[in-house]
Amino acid sequence: MTRFAILLGGDLTVMPRLQKQLAGARVIAADRGMIHAAVLGLTPELWVGDFDSAGSELKIQYRDIPRHIHPAEKAATDGGHAIAVALERGATELVLVGGFGGQTDHTVGHCGQVLHLANSGFPAFITGGDEEAYPVIPGSLKIDLPEQSRLSIAPFTDLVGLDIENVKWPLVKHHVPLGSTLTLSNVAHGSVRIGLQSGHAIAFAYPTRD
Fold first, then answer.
1. Cα(29)–Cα(177) distance, rounded to whole angstroms?
2. Which of 5, 22, 77, 108 is most buried per CB count within 10 Å?
3. What is the pTM of this model?
4. Which of 145, 135, 137 is nearest to 165 (CA)?
5. Phi and psi angles of residue 160, each rounded to the nearest 5 degrees, phi first
6. Nearest-CA neighbor of 206 among 146, 118, 138?
């Protein structure tokens, strides 16, 4: 498995769990996402973007990092371009780092991207360090979480045959309609298994500190 970390420009809290998730990953920064490189102790192999938000200090500090420059008027976000490049370079799984905060439309877009990646056979998740988001598609998903972590599943469609195991309020083959809040604010007893027959959702996890 070849894991790529895509550094995005959102909020980030550096925690030991995050450092473990990024261990051994190849790194691509998307425009302003380069601000996270130093605090994470990472050196990206590529810097992608239109560089409208990176700032002159970052450009000077990381002047030796190779760049893929895109015009400001483009058909995808800088993060979207970074993901495409990672896949071209052999990524088999992706971590979108700093994918929360800032503009809500971008956060929702990142959720759509990890759902698309999962449907295409590429495991992916979003992390802000203290918040994570995982795509839930038909099949089975295991999320390793510390005990007492909060877990919410937000339906993006009607969910059919939803199973949630090893949580305070488990479900078995449950139907959850779009717009339901039934599956918000559950509590994990450790690693959680989610099963789904049909539909799409995002599982939001708020890990307790390891």
1. 37
2. 5
3. 0.93
4. 145
5. -115, 130
6. 146
